[in-house]
Structure formats: C-alpha cells, structure tokens
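Quick bug: Bifunctional protein FolD output formatted oddly.
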Amino acid sequence: MVKAEIISGKEVAAEKRASLKEEVRVLQETEGIIPGLTVILVGDHPASRSYVTAKHKACAEIGMHSEIIELEESVSEAALLAEISRLNEDDTVHGILVQLPLPGHIDEQKVITAISPEKDVDGFHPINIGKMMTNQETLLPCTPFGIVEMVKSKGIDIKGKHVVVIGRSNIVGKPVGQLFLNEDATVTYCHSRTVNMQQLTLQADILIVAVGRANFISAEYIKEGAVIIDVGVNRLPSGKLCGDVVFEDALQKASYVTPVPGGVGPMTITMLLHNTVQAAKNVRKGV
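Here's what came back:
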C-alpha cells in the first residue's frame, strides 16, 4: 500500500520566509520601510512567553523589527487599551498582537476590537473577519491562512472538493471553513453536537481536524485518498506530542497528511510575518 505524502509545514514555512525576507529587503531599500511588529504579553505564562519568543525570533530571521511589551498580570483593562491606542498611532508599528489568553478581568473581545483593523495581524478584528466572509482582500487569521497555503503548496485542487472541518472555534474552525469556501470548496462543519460525524468525515476530500483531543480521528473516519490536515497539538502522559488524528492510520489511508509537530504549527507564525509585511505595504499604498 502506498503511504500518504507528508505536507511538511517546516518546509513550506521555510520557503515562505525566504520570500518574505526578500520582500522586507526590497521594502527597506526602495521605500525606507522596515515592517514592525509589536507583541503585548500580559502576565508570565510559560506557554505564552514561549510563543512570543518564537515570534520575536522569526521577525529577526527575516529582517523585520519587533518589540515585546510586557505588562503585569494585574494590569487594568483601561491601561491595556491605552497601550493599544498608543500603538495604533505609532507609524513605525505595522502590526499589533496581544498574546491570548488574557487574565479573566480583561474582556478579550474588547481588546481585539481596540486594535486598528489595518494593524490587526492576527486577523481577528470583526472588520477583518467581515471582509474575509465577503471575500475581500484583508489580513487573514494566521492558522487558517497557513492551512490553505499548505494545501496549495502541493498543487491540490480545492475547487469543488468537499472540505469537512471538525471544530468551530473562532480562531481556527470557523475561519478555515470560510477560506476554503472562498476557494470554491463545499464546506461542512462538525462539532460536539454533530450527529453521526463519521458519515460526514467519510465524504471528506479534505479533512481538517481542530478539536484538541489526542488521536480523536482514526482510520474508520478517513476516506481513502483524502487530504488530512491535523491542527491539534496534544501532550500524552508519556510527554510525547501528538495531533488530533492517529498519524499512522492517516499515513495508510490518506493521500496527504500533516505531521504533529512540524505541520500546521510553523505556518501560523509564518503567516503572522506575512500579514505584518502586508500591513507595511498597505501603508505604502495608502490602504
């Protein structure tokens, strides 16, 4: 039996970053613009700090400017919103990202909405989400955007394909389905209340799994020859990382599959870099 081809997020991300590095160089040399990303980190959560450090390192890798603003866990909502307002007015800052999750006393949606849509490089602002829904050019949510790029990198035809998304989060599930709809796919969403999910997943030409449950999807849920995109990152009791899909099962039945780790993860930060460079270009174009 022929095993599935692995879609390496590391490889796709490396190619994309090389291209972005050249774009940054040209922007700096021809326009005097250095794309700048500012990340606000509230509190000292190890996972959040790890993500922020990775973003900072990735910016340096392609020649972008980046800054990390660290605020105490006890910072007031008003103080955080004031900091965002200041960054909105700073012309050297092209992208603003507030690392989630935030402490319970701060309204996340209020914070997301406070970021200028033109600087919302996470792609979460309601205006950017609305533009995505109506297929207008905008800054797209990074993980869903990265997933589409990974599928396209293999020359997989999306038009007319049945895409089944398991998960309906605002960060991945909902927007990734919309992006595939924008690419002329037929999209079905599954979630915790879906009846007979297996019947739907077995129809999927492209199956995207984003539920955060280790090894949730096994062989009997996978259509022969399907493309499997595994968004989940779960730590087993042994300490080993795994996805939401039983990887060995996907290897035997699918045509393409993303690994965990090294699949969707590297693409998320890469598309954040892409969005920041795009935001800087938009300033140049007067968008």
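Actually, after a second look the formatting is fine. The CA atoms of residues 39 and 97 lie 5 Å apart. Closing.
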